[in-house]
Amino acid sequence: MVGSHFTLKGASAPTKPVQKPHPPIWIGANADPAIERAARLGDCWYVNPHNRLDTIVRQVEVYQRALERCGKPFPQEFPARREVFVARSRDEAIRLCAPFLGAKYQAYEQWGQSQAMPAGDNNLGGEFDELIKDRFLLGSPDEVAEQILALHRTTGINHLIMSVQWPGMPQSLVLDELHMLAEEVFPRVRQGWPAA
Question: What CA–CA distance (Å, rounded) separates 75 from 136?
């Protein structure tokens, strides 16, 4: 295989991504004009992990109007990324994840991420209790399962990419969380998910 910048001898790539017409193009966006651009240019808008639920609900309307102007249907696959942490109780989840998730968002604030977010939902540097309100999926298995289902019901999001580990978080804590997600949260979500 010879390319413009490389030569590979004896290499093959038997598994190819979707080819017809192309791999799905997800476009991430925070601000309303960027969401309109995602509707125009992409196959779907990839919802960011830091907007509150009320902002996402409002922005879904922005997205739907932009799709209508482009003559495009709402996508069958509507993805989002969310920060997720599950523990035996909400208090425990917050206690365990706050040092790591809080530090991540303090860094975002220092880097200016808030400036790219919609007015009224652009304070990533506040107190952790304020930051997490309707923004992340945190709590007990029952609470996180219900939050996932509520996110789907209120926004239509049906493909969830979960951020479950943040800088400095011990791997043992992440593994405990992953087990809880797989064994307790996901079965509850499947039970409550609307039939296709």
Answer: 24
Among candidate residues 83, 78, 80, the one with its CA nearest the CA of residue 48: 80
Helix (H) or strand (E) holding 131: helix 128-131
**Alpha helices per DSSP H over 8-76:** 32-41, 53-70
pLDDT tens figures, 88-146: 999 999 999 999 999 999 999 899 888 888 888 888 888 888 889 889 999 999 999 99
Residue numbers of the domain that contains 174: 26-192
Burial class (CB in 10 A: 0-12, 13-18, 19+), 145: buried
pTM of the full structure? 0.87
Inter-residue contact 145 to 188 (CB < 8 Å): yes
Residue 75 and residue 79: Cα distance in Å, rounded?
10
Q: Kindly state whether residue 1 falls inside one of the protein's structural domains.
A: no
CATH number of the structural domain spanning residue 113: 3.20.20.30
Pick from 25, 180, 32: nearest CA to 97: 180
